Amino acid sequence: MELIAFLGADKENWGQVTALIKKGEWDKVLVVKAKDTESFPYGGEAITIDTSQSILELKTELMEKIKDKISGEFEVALSIASGNGKEHMALISALLGIPVGIRFAVFTKEGVKFIN
Length: 116
Description:
Strand order of the largest sheet: 3-2-1-4-5-6
Radius of gyration: 13 Å
Distance between the termini: 15 Å
Number of strands: 6
Helix content: 25-40%
Shape: globular
Strand content: 25-35%
Order of helices and strands: EHEEHEHEE
Largest sheet: 6 strands, mixed
CATH architecture: 3-Layer(aba) Sandwich
Number of helices: 3
CATH class: Alpha Beta
């Protein structure tokens, strides 16, 4: 399964994303981040977006940048532990519009878990 993780400016949540990337068994990792978010050295292919746009423009940009990077999967694992509501709504909407199913992934004391 492929993992798509949103990486926001809120560095206090980067540990959750880092653990999920390092401890999970992923076919591919896509890290979606705002253009002004610092670099993220923990793996995955970075997809940089302009979060200053409206939510509909952001959704369109995400769909364009993600659709060709997902390798025909019917569903992907998704982490929205980092970022804000606007960013999360645009990303979820873009994924559903591609269309691809989503399974929310988190890293816990017991390892990687899916919460839906």
